[in-house]
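User: What would this chain look like folded?
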Amino acid sequence: MPAAIQGKCPGCKKTLRIPADRVNQAVRCKHCGMAVQIRPKSKSDKIQESTPLPSAPPDVPQTPLPDSPARSKQAPNPSAPATAQSAMAFSTEDDRPIVRVADRFRSRRHRWIALGVGIGLLALLSTGFYFAWPHLGKVKTELLANAREDDSESAVEETTSPVHETSSTTSKHDASAVPSTPRLPTGGVFPRRLLTICVHNYLFANPVSYGEASGQNFHALTDKLARVLHVPATQVVELSDAAPGQRPAPAPARSKGKSGAPKEPPPRQSTARPTSKTIIEQTVTKFLNTCRPQDRAVVLFVGHVVELDEQAYLVPLEGELTAKENLIPVTWLYQNLEKCPARQKVLILDTCRLDPSRGSEKPGSGPMGPKLDSLLANPPAGVQVWCSCRAKEYSYESEGDSIFLNSLAKSLTQKVIKNIQEPRDALPVEALAKEVERLTATAVTEQWKAKQTPRLSGAEPQNGAAYNKQEPLPPKIELPSPVMASGAAASAKDVESILREIELPPIRLASDETQPVRIAALVPFSAQALQPYQADYTVEEFKRNPSRYPFRMAVLDALEAMRNGFNPHNDAFSLQDSFPAGNNDSLKKDILKRQMKPAKVLGLLMEALDDLRKVGEERDQEPSKRWQAHYDYVLAELLARMAYVQEYDLMLGKIRKDELPELQPNVDTGWRLASKEKLSSAKDVKEMAAESRKIFAKIIKQYKGTPWEVLAKRERLTALGLEWQPTH
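Assistant: Here's the prediction, encoded as structure tokens.
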């Protein structure tokens, strides 16, 4: 029998019989699977004759150690005796270190480690595939597009994404959104068009939020709609009076790669334009009239809509809520949509906006009225109308965002749209509307404990023109420019000189997105009407001789006092309109200090008012009609702002008296002053506000057709009352 030696396994401590020719070689224990190496203790160790070695039990793994170069050359001899075969059942490994494991589950650990490594590799591959999928889709699209010999190069270029969502479009509101975006189609230019209109900083109405200055705004939503719905770049039109903000400079267009596939175009840029009645009407008409029968067109309007004499009207930037001649009838928009030759026509309307934490500084849409609700629920045949709310409801804003539009942005994902879109497909408005309704209702209930129910009405026609990739796209629409003053109209320069002399910051702290209203670019003035108000001086001239011009200097001093007191960048006098929740005692102490600011502002305003009242006795003797008008306007503004400061001081006192509304735990973060029509102050303050409105009414009549009339109409609508509202 072959010679064998005996030794103990360091793992399971069981005795092993090892063939003598395996001494100093690696073998595997048949009991626990540990790799061991048997070495003689000394030269005196004797080699004993061994009884036949038993075969390894069937449940012992027979997995050999990894082959070494020497081992790979050896092969078991099938003709060897049984004892030798048993010995050969021990796997050997030449010239390799031995790995020792202290537990008897060695073979199981190997299996678990292998399984874990496999799962980890699978997870890494899956993650890489997940993030690479959109790019793979683009490659696939480009390859397929290039393979079509009958497609022209210009048509293929339109299959790429027309606009791109930059990192600035991500905000806290997108945290719950599914990160996946709809995959690219298999090729072809989509017959789709998009027109978005946002009337933001109204002249005679409450502002409508443009969106977060950080990027989650109307411009970003337009880009995302165009990208996800595959609207060609030349078919996207954005009209808004809000400044687009700081955006990345457009990158130079990249050339085609070796495959000839087009590269991604730079981000689309936009320019603020006045959203006046004329410009809105011209843009809508041109957009709808140039649609092709195969097109699918979307018109999105954000702004106020009012009801007058049983009719509903869109409110343009300069529109007065009570003057029909300055408004756009909804029926006019319906008629143009009905005449539009496009196969699918979708009108999205986000109106009746309200932010309870800011209130209404000026009049707005109010809750949706019954006439408007009925009109939107019953659109013309072949027109789909998607509105943000229903009768008796508001479309709520939250911290500078429209909840409805935010929900729309979150819904633009592959999870909602589901299918890969193709050029011949309809716009997926039904799937989007269902998800937007759910998200909007949930957010409004959680944030405002209110109800808002978006609704999609109407249907796409059953029959329509088929998709035709050979038909050229409609020409790119250029936005009309504001009508420049010419001929009998006063020059914009003359109008701006008047406005610049009496320019004031808003009574309420303006949000970062709010831009000053450029009246000169919105309202035409007659040169003849402004002729009596021409300047016959320079301001620097009578500033050098104040004693010679006491009347004008009193007006300038009053303007300076109001500019300092309401300048948000002047820490000495600026009025804070929001406070975070915190320790009540420390907050009350802080409020006591802060009440010194309105006291200082009020003191300066009262001093300016005394001076104005005094020189007012000489108003009729002032030779300049321009400065008479300045005086009247400044006096009305001064009275209104004095009433506001005293109302503000009263609101600060409510904090010290613990008269603030309760905050919802883990929901509300503090309080903000919201505007309201009626004041809560004493009788003398209310009388001061009433006198201000009377003077504004006098200006509107006396200075008709001038910038003072427009300013008086705007400021007379400003709400001076205040109340505390929780903020989220």
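Confidence is low (pLDDT under 50) at residues 43-106, 141-179, 245-265. If you want, I can go into more detail on any region.
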